[in-house]
Request: fold
Amino acid sequence: MNPFTYSRAGDLDEAVREISDNDRAKFIAGGTNLVDLMKANVMHPTHLVDITRLGLSAIEETEEGGLRLGSLVTNAETAYHPQVAERYPLLANAILAGASPQLRNMATNGGNLLQRTRCYYFYDTATPCNKREPGSGCSALNGHNRIHAILGTSEHCIATHPSDMCVALAALEAVVRVTNRYGERAIPFADFHRLPGDTPHIDANLEPDEIITAVELPPRGFSQHFKYLKIRDRASYAFALVSVAVGLEMEGDTIREARLALGGVAHKPWRNLEAEALLVGNPANRETFKRAADRIVADARGYGSNSFKIELARRAVVRALNEAAK
Amino acid sequence: MTTNYIGKPTNRVDGYAKVTGGAKYAGEHNVPGLTYGVVVSSDIARGRISRIDASEALKLNGVLEVFTHENRPSLPWFDRNYQDQDQPPGSPFRPLYDNEIQFSQQPIALVVAETFELARYAASLVKVQYVREPHGTDLRAIQGQAYAPSKGKPSWKKPRPRGNAAQGMEQSIFKIEGRYDHAAEHHNPLEMHASTVVYEPSGKLTVYDKTQGVPNSQKYISRIFGLSKAQATVHAPFIGGAFGSGLRPQYQLFLAVMAALQLKRSVRVTLTRQQMFSFGHRPATIQRFELGADAEGKLQAVVHEAIQETSQFEDYTENVVNWSGTVYQCDNVEPTYKLVKLDTYTPLDMRAPGGATAMAAYEVAIDELAYAAGIDPLEFRLINYTERDPMQDLPYSSKELRACYRQAAERFGWSNRRPEPRSMRDGNELIGWGMATGIWEAEQKPAMAKAVLTADGKLTVSSATEDIGTGTYTIMTQIAAETLGLPLENVTFELGDSSMPEAPLQGGSWTAATVGSAVKSACLEVQKRLFEYAGSMPDSPLAKADADGVVFADGRIHLKHYPTIGVTIQDVLRHSGVDRIEEEVTTLPDMLRQKKYARFTHSAVFVEVKVDEDLGTVHVTRVVTAVAGGRILNPKTARSQVLGGVVWGIGMALEEESVLDHQFGRFINHDLAEYHVAVNLDVPPIDVIFVEENDTVVNPLGVKGLGEIGVVGTPAAIANAVFHATGKRLRDLPITLDKVM
Amino acid sequence: MSNQSATITEAPKTAQLPRTSIVTLTVNGEQRSLRIAPWTTLLDALREYLDLTGTKKGCDHGQCGACTVLVDGKRINACLALAVMVDDREITTIEGLTKEGSATPDGLHPMQAAFIEHDAFQCGYCTPGQICSAVGLLKEGHAHSREDIQELMSGNICRCGAYPNIVDAIEDVKNHQPDRA
Reply:
């Protein structure tokens, strides 16, 4: 960990000003990912702006009848919040499938969106990694890529986004609220994270001088028919090999609306709108689910030790849809 | 009698220290002026350092020194100076010896600074240039280079064939053949390896080291740095797990002592979790079996080959292929054991070394043969049960394995099992029941102990052994208290100090037998003295008694047949006029008697798994294990030992794998997020049964040791249960979901 | 390699390090002031600056739970918290539990006593983290079954494998001393 200076921002303006004035400054709140990466010598900010005293820690209803999750609310507070648990159980379940109780007590919603990949090579400075050191090469392509992506990859990077929460947020079509020195803007969740392309070092479409203030959930929470299915190498406290977030609106046995997002398979929570369209208007049965699953993995590519994920993802989608439709 | 403690469930005597945070481990002894060393590790697996530049690090105020091969002090460099008690044949690794890189993450520099944070930062500023050379780390790819080692570690037994296996196979009606691989694993005790060297003004060193043998560490640094036993003492009162990782002095000890002597300062070196993957590990192993049985299911032939990895510089050897000729009756056995040299650090004994490896494969092969013969797996093992050790052709000192099978099977409900695979189901999940046999050696080593009884009636017994979580503190206290008939709270057992009477490494499940015998013997010597004093007391009621006619219990010495006639130990001490009775003993195993018998601990493990057929996930939902381990000194801590072993078995079967990336010759999942050990939710209820077993041969206490036995049979029982659930015979560990689905 | 005893390398100390400042932490009810730089984690502050070594370092990366402490009553991983960021919080470590819940003659918190009684540890290294985590778990109130306890204790690795006994100890406290939990 390199030396850095520290300041505590008193309000949003101060936080934005501090970050805008220093291109090697980073915000810190929960610290669960940043401090880890600084210890691993992967990230080297020279100034940290503590934003934990900014407020931004409320969960409240939006005018449209949705829910606004302050960016500094912890993952645990969010998951156990009565409104979230009741109206957005998909989100609550996804959060509680991630990390550990201790980490969820520290990690914030904003930080969860910005957590970085768990790629072994990204973490190990003895090996080349385009995400850590652009242009150095991708060690995972021909290496041990059990935990790596099968969708939306590039020759420069096959890392995955490790969040569980974000998979649910993608399915719920949340909106990310950000503030910069010129004002505010809203980023649809689908546009928040990026695919690696030839710039794998940039994870998200968030400018360095912007701060996430909230994540807004639209009114529809799919609280009747939902499933967060997480498949991992042990029963708990492990990142997803594949995860699936499903929200359905049913009319009898017919699917009226479908949301489907996958984790552990791509550089961002993965949605396939064509696959979702294949579900809508069709009976909730194995044939329908398989068609959607096949459509999703049709574009998948394995790299050796992660090739099993293609079939696993297919089966996981079918299983999650089946459970959600019940 | 209230002072009968042996065999009673007893809370750990070190429990209070451990639950209050009072127990201090190697990296926790804080002294004024302590400095911190952080190790710089090699990025490459093989080659040379062409340049190492520490100038940026040294510019930092508070950085005291950066030690490298270029500026390290002149030291003896002969292999013999780097010997240790668990050393395989070869040339031991010598830290900072020269610019040659022999394995990835090799320590290449030590940065010492006034604070930990500063040392860590400075370490990141040390610039290293390498000349890379091609490395070989792929065991499967280069298994053709395997050779039969001519010698091994002292504990290694050269495999001996018997009968004619080829002929046995020919005569067999039922045959199986298969290859069984398992990955390398790392010990990963939760406490990372650390050494704190306290430099006293006189130049004396007090060293707190994470070790399974303070004498081993003490001798190691003495030989290298020319320190007498008085100049450097090594202490390890608490060890945060080890499982074998502390059997050899690890490089943080060398580096911390070197730095302390050079800087004349107290130094602590703690490895990072990543660096915990930079030294010994359970070696990856490729095994092959050919087994044959006759029409009744009797084993006719066992062909067992094992290829294991070792380093370029040492021939690490385990007893792997020996076990298949030991467990069951079979006249035709052909074992082959070979090594392949890889550019990694030398493997290192890890909980049940060799035995866990062998039995994880052999007991799966046996299950396959049972299925081939159409015989229930438990019945098959009973058919091949042996009342005499076929390997050594000796009777057993005791063997209650049959009772283990019976009791565990009954508790588990094995008789309700439907033999066909895929015959039991619960929703999306297939249910499987599997079982396996476990076996481990019951050894006793020479050891010393000292007992001191003071006038206040307090007894202190000491021996330079360890308690790595095994319960040594507690069981030794029980033995000592019961032998002298003193209340537990009047007895203290001390360990982990190199100035104490010597004990062997803590490992191999021999500590209870070995140190326990020495403790008992020392206390018996104190008994003798007390009895003499008691007899010479004025008007002694014991004046005419013989030693055999008295009992030490409840703080008294009394006549065996007239318990009311006796004296209190306090009175004996007061009248004798001595302020202490001190006895030191050396206890040797009774080799003459022991060598006439085969001495083993046995177990039977029964496991239920639930397998998600679509997703491939396996959950162990129930475990019953019965252990025949001789006398159980403390059922509470004994059960914990076995629980822990079973949890290790779950990890070995389903989760643990140190992945070598052959691009870099480096263990790449080197942290606890990606090297998966079992977490709480992975572990089901575990039913541990101790089968009564009386053994008068193994040692005077009749104990066999329990540290390894829990892990030995468990992986195979799980693999067999997965087969029963799915019909898929998975021969490679760990059984991850991609292999199952 | 030099042939003589190494000499201590002298180099001009020119590089700049971040300034330290006095940070006051409230640990186990006591105010403790220490001079640290921002890069000192809460875990290192406790262990190396305050000599409260009951809180353990098992990985230093939030992957084992050995460093679990309670901050404002909530369990967190001290290895990932910067000490400067928690200067106005109430920090409770294993050393503070003994005082905090002293219900037994030896001053043990009920969870500590239950861990001894159920032999819920072996080497003892993960134990303070397990106990702090268990105390936090019961305060949270989300564990309604044995399986819930197992899931919600899975952030604390016990390499010795004492898990079944750990769950027994927690259930014992949960069932018999709900008011103390």
In short: The domain at 97-176 of chain C is CATH 1.10.150.120 (DNA polymerase; domain 1). Chain C touches chain B through 74 residues (CB under 8 Å). The mean pLDDT of chain C is 90.
